[in-house]
Design a protein that fits this description.
alpha/beta, Rossmann fold, Alpha-Beta Plaits, 3 domains, 5-stranded parallel beta sheet, 22 helices, 56% helix
Length: 533
């Protein structure tokens, strides 16, 4: 219900308008009154009216001055000026400011009521358009912003100057002018579809999308990035809220599925984001090294640092190295993560690297585990070994860099073979998903989750794979199918737009009309009249 505020210095007129206009019947809520602009301004700031009715000539602050200030602070406010002066200059200034209506005294009740009805209709239309625009933005984002991800990749790799960051951010509609920044990475492992996964994902991503202090991006198939930004004094609060949002939602898994969030260092400059990303990537590697630690921060991740080499394994905790960790890395790590993971792992076992038997044990375990992994994918070990150049290291004394190179080559080759195998697998899944969409795009209940459930893959994976292979987000693809069908019906039938909306999958005919104009550049009527393309 629109809220209305009245400013009038003549008490008789003010009380008459306040008490005789049937605000409730007109669909308004009367929220306050004042005798002049100076008295009104703080009250308007606290009541946030949708409509301001103000006299033009008042002591202390007149109606035009008040209108300027209100529209600067609340640009969607509709202002009705009442005036006893039939002066063109006043009317010209009112129009220039953006006043909605200019009424001359004496004002009749009927005239004011008609104006209020017109203004209310306009408010509702504008709100409807804002709602449709917000829905369109939510749908079209699909949490898949390739341009934004490409931009952030360049930022964290240090490829852009600060000026270029601001310019590119402006073109992408990103506000990156904060006192402090921090990068977080989070994910819950899992590829198969479940209702719980879908619900948790939508709830969590929707939460971050609503808060301007978080910029959400998909980073890879299983991982999301959050750029946290704001005033320096509030960063700790934003970080703790981020951790709480993820922890509260992922707690439903109760140990059934691994989930992690890593929070890196904070920085006061955009130019320091590469350092922030390097720090959070280092922490992110510990989801394999310390899999029981869900929240990875500089406080929760314990790195021993370099220690004096031990001549034997007597005091070394051999459980620090187990092949399950290697299998998890090969199953889910992205190729670009491997160097970081190995570096942090070797740091973690640095106190045992002086033992040659242990070093050879680590290297041989890596080799045999990688062979076991690729065999489980149906790939012969020859494919693995042909991509490794350092197979003969295990028969001589080795140092830290030798181990790093050996592990890197085996794990990188295994992950490469995994990705090739997954690509073949996902082509089949994606084909089934596209077939399902093509057969059901006119169903108003069609969603990413329904398609994911149909092909038994998580919505998270389907969204990423779909965009990667189709070069289009799920929503963009479905919208295109529906718009093409709508254009066909506009060309070949006499059905009105409301009927067509329902036939192509939209319950709300107004939203359909909004989408049609947004995506096709013209209204359905203009298209039918001959503006076809």
């Amino acid at each position: 219900m629109p809220r209305v505020f009245l400013v009038e210095d003549e008490s008789t007129i003010r009380s008459t308008l306040r008490d005789t206009v049937p605000w409730g019947q007109l669909g308004y809520e009367f929220v306050g009154e004042a005798t002049d602009g100076e008295m009104a301004l703080p009250l308007i700031g606290s009541t946030h009216p949708d409509v301001l009715i103000t006299d033009i000539k008042m002591p202390f602050m007149d109606g035009l001055s008040l209108s300027k200030l209100v529209l600067k602070e609340f640009p969607n406010t509709k202002i009705i000026i009442i005036s006893g002066y039939d002066d063109f200059e006043y009317a010209r200034q009112a129009i220039e400011i953006g006043v909605e209506q200019y009424l001359l005294k004496p004002i009749t009740k009927a005239n004011l009521m008609n104006v209020l009805r017109e203004v209310k209709e306009k408010i509702e239309q504008e709100q409807e358009q804002r709602n449709y625009q917000a829905q369109f933005q939510r749908d079209s984002q699909e949490y898949e912003q390739f341009a934004r991800r490409s931009f952030m990749e360049q930022v964290v790799e240090g490829k852009l100057s600060v000026q270029q960051i601001y310019e590119d951010a402006g073109r992408l509609g990103l506000e990156l002018k904060a006192q402090s920044y921090c990068i977080a990475l989070f994910s819950a492992m899992g590829e198969t579809y479940s209702d719980t996964d879908a619900r948790v994902r939508e709830d969590l991503l929707g939460h971050f999308m609503k808060h301007p202090e978080y910029l959400l991006l998909r980073w890879n198939l299983s991982t999301y990035m959050l750029l946290i930004m704001g005033e320096k004094s509030r960063m700790d609060s934003y970080i703790q809220s981020c951790i709480a949002a993820i922890t509260n939602r992922y707690s439903v898994y109760d140990g059934q599925k691994p989930w992690y969030v890593a929070i890196g260092m904070t920085a006061g400059r955009l130019s320091q984001l590469p350092e922030c990303f390097e720090d959070v990537s280092r922490l992110w590697a510990y989801r394999y090294i310390q899999p029981e630690t869900h929240i990875l921060t500089s406080e929760t991740v314990k790195t021993p640092g370099a220690k004096a080499a031990s001549a034997d394994l007597e005091n070394f905790d051999v459980s620090k190295f187990n092949t399950d960790m290697l299998l998890e890395i090969m199953k889910s790590a992205a190729p670009e993560e491997i160097p970081n993971i190995i570096s942090e792992f070797l740091l973690d076992i640095s106190d045992a690297v002086g033992s040659q038997p242990f070093c050879h044990y680590v290297m041989l375990s890596t080799r045999f585990t990688a062979i076991q992994f690729v065999n489980s994918l149906g790939i012969k070990q020859d494919k693995l070994l042909e991509g490794v150049t350092c197979q003969d290291m295990t028969d001589r004394n080795v140092e830290m860099n030798d181990i790093r190179k050996y592990m890197s080559e085996f794990l990188m080759q295994a992950v490469k073979l995994r990705n090739q195998s997954s690509a073949n697998q996902y082509k089949d899944i994606l084909g089934r998903a596209v077939d399902y969409i093509d057969s059901h795009f006119t169903d108003d209940s069609l969603s990413l989750n329904t398609v994911a459930k149909e092909v038994n893959i998580s919505a998270n994976y389907l969204s990423a794979v779909f965009s990667q292979e189709m070069k289009s987000t799920f929503v963009e693809y479905v919208t295109s199918k529906r718009m093409n069908k709508a254009k066909e019906l506009l060309r070949t039938t006499d059905k009105h737009s409301g009927e067509i909306a329902l036939e192509v999958g939209y319950k709300d005919p107004h939203y359909f009309s909004f989408l049609f104009k947004k995506t096709q550049g013209m209204t359905t009527r203009e298209y039918r009249a001959g503006g076809k393309h």
